[in-house]
Write a structure and sequence with these properties.
Layout lengths: L18 H19 L35 H36 L4 H14 L3 H12 L3 H28 L2 H8 L4 H37 L11 H8 L5
């Protein structure tokens, strides 16, 4: 007996065989590799200025050319990738930890005062565009990489909180969770042993999405002068400085 054939022909059976996935993985791998290598090596010091070499085109000496201050653009891109990834990881890690904790706490106190308070705060934060909220926070606290991490983490909190609460509420209705409650286990113990392991997958998926958005937000903040500050390279500020030379 022949095995059933896929309904849609011409598509890879496995996600790792998709050309789009492989292309995206290769591009992301190059960025991560450049960021990691920049800790130990860059072609030039990205902070070193050489006015006599300003605005050089790409060459064997400077692979991506130089900027208006004579700095090597390729070296700046490598270190800028490192800074962007650091801000993204820090912001997502903070948002995931605090947001998931708030969502799990709201699920434990479902339909109570604490649940309503956390969810109304999440609704209020959604009333403002996410990037605008990060800009407002950075403008109040001042520019800097750490403030950018906190600002981006704050606007990502509601996404993790609502997702964690919704997924946890589904788990609280499962039979084995009800049996654990009937056996006298505390809600915090049930959450740690049964709820959190079951919702970890969806939280990780959301974290990957927020990670990409966090990198974009960091570039936007740096473009406006509210993110990574000179002399540390940043993709957003590099675009800001180069826009006067764009035709």
């Amino acid at each position: 007996m022949r095995p059933p054939q896929p309904v849609v022909r011409g598509r890879p059976r496995h996600w790792w065989a998709s050309p789009s996935f492989l292309a995206g993985l290769a591009l992301a791998g190059l960025v991560v590799a450049a960021a990691l290598i920049s800790y130990v090596w860059t072609p030039y010091d990205p902070k070193q200025m050489a006015i006599l070499k300003r605005l050089r085109p790409p060459s064997a000496e400077h692979w991506f050319g130089t900027d208006q201050f004579g700095r090597d653009i390729f070296s700046m891109i490598m270190v800028g990738a490192r800074n962007s990834l650091a801000v993204g990881l820090g912001a997502v890690g903070l948002g995931l930890t605090v947001g998931s904790a708030l969502g799990l706490l709201a699920a434990m106190r479902r339909d109570g005062l604490l649940d309503n308070l956390i969810m109304r705060m999440a609704d209020f934060s959604h009333a403002f565009p996410a990037v605008l909220s990060a800009i407002m926070i950075s403008a109040v606290w001042g520019p800097g990489m750490m403030n950018a991490v906190i600002a981006i983490a704050i606007y990502s909190l509601p996404y993790f909180a609502r997702l964690a609460r919704g997924a946890a509420l589904q788990c609280w209705a499962l039979d084995y969770v009800l049996a654990a409650r009937a056996a006298g286990l505390r809600e915090i113990t049930i959450t740690r042993l049964h709820i959190l392991p079951n919702i970890a997958g969806v939280l990780v998926v959301q974290a990957t999405i927020q990670f990409a958005l966090a990198i974009l937000a960091e570039a936007g903040l740096s473009y406006l002068g509210l993110g990574t500050q000179p002399p540390n390279p940043s993709w957003g500020r590099m675009l800001n400085e180069a826009q006067t030379f764009m035709a």
